[in-house]
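Consider the tokenized backbone below.
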């Protein structure tokens, strides 16, 4: 039924059950329609292959059963109870998935850790600044057309790169991080979404690592890129990546990394010597003083910082864990 479409998309995205608008659907849901609802959500092929968190699915089923009971629905479909029993018996997983419908029938499926911190890093979770940057990309695809783009500190999900690939016509996308567990999970997420793409092995150095994904119009690569190891003589970086745009989300949170980050930015701007090269940063402002310190360091090193308006950015990808109100975006250029 078409009336289940919004519920399905909210469920697959992992939207909190209390925030899903069921409208009046659960007031008098016939037996066959109940079956259609569970097949559109819990038994959806994406959830069966790449399941959402177990506790989320249990809460979703319990909510539906409870509402049907409150509304006096005479018969509640056996499948709700069967699936609920199966979910309760399942062993908790260390990872789970979310599935975002971005454009038309295109989905982005993401694997993330169920723990806030895992293997000494928070990079195995989806963060709001990456969601905001991805929504900005989807809302402004022309800004990224024909660009060769490097993302710094991509984290495990690859959401920004996948949003670029699904919505724009950029030439190259290179995603980077430096934590082995994060990079390995990043590779897994890219593989999950690009099963039909040609893959070329690029294990030629520590810098260009793992795989290059090629479709008819765009290359996507995974880089192991520690900021402190970037130097003026990066022949392989220049050869493989013709960068004219840098992106990053939620990398400005610890003042101890600011020097390495700004140094990395200066070297990349110097390497490519392109007056149109720019850095777009999406950042959750958790501590204004810390962020101001970063901006001052940028200005000291001859960077200009201008805030971008994101008021009209459509939220095609929701962030289910916290509000996006504290996220801001900036365009940063270098005055050599």
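A designed sequence for it:
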């Amino acid at each position: 039924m078409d009336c289940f479409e919004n519920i399905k998309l909210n469920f697959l995205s992992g939207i909190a059950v209390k925030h899903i608008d069921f409208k009046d659907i659960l007031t008098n849901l016939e037996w066959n329609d109940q079956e259609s609802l569970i097949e559109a959500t819990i038994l959806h092929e994406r959830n069966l292959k790449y399941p959402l968190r177990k506790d989320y699915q249990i809460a979703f089923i319990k909510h539906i059963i409870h509402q049907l009971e409150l509304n006096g629905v005479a018969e509640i479909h056996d499948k709700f109870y069967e699936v609920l029993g199966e979910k309760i018996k399942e062993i908790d997983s260390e990872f789970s998935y979310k599935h975002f419908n971005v454009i038309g029938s295109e989905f982005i499926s993401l694997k993330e850790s169920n723990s806030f911190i895992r293997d000494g890093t928070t990079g195995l979770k989806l963060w709001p600044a990456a969601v905001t940057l991805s929504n900005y990309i989807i809302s402004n695809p022309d800004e990224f057309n024909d660009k060769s783009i490097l993302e710094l500190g991509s984290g495990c999900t690859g959401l920004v790169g996948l949003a670029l690939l699904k919505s724009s016509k950029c030439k190259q996308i290179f995603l980077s991080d430096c934590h082995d567990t994060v990079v390995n999970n990043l590779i897994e997420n890219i593989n999950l979404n690009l099963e039909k793409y040609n893959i070329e092995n690029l294990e030629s150095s520590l810098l260009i690592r793992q795989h290059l994904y090629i479709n008819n119009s765009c290359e996507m690569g995974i880089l192991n890129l520690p900021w402190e190891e970037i130097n003026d003589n990066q022949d392989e970086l220049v050869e493989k990546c013709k960068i004219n745009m840098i992106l990053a989300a939620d990398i400005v949170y610890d003042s101890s990394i600011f020097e390495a980050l700004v140094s990395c930015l200066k070297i990349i701007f110097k390497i490519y010597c392109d007056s149109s090269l720019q850095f777009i940063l999406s950042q959750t402002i958790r501590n204004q003083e810390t962020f101001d310190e970063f901006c001052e360091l940028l200005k000291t090193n001859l960077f200009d910082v201008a805030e971008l308006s994101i008021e009209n950015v459509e939220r095609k990808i929701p962030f289910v864990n916290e509000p996006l109100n504290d996220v801001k975006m900036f365009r940063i250029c270098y005055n050599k």
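The first strand starts at residue 95 and ends at 103.
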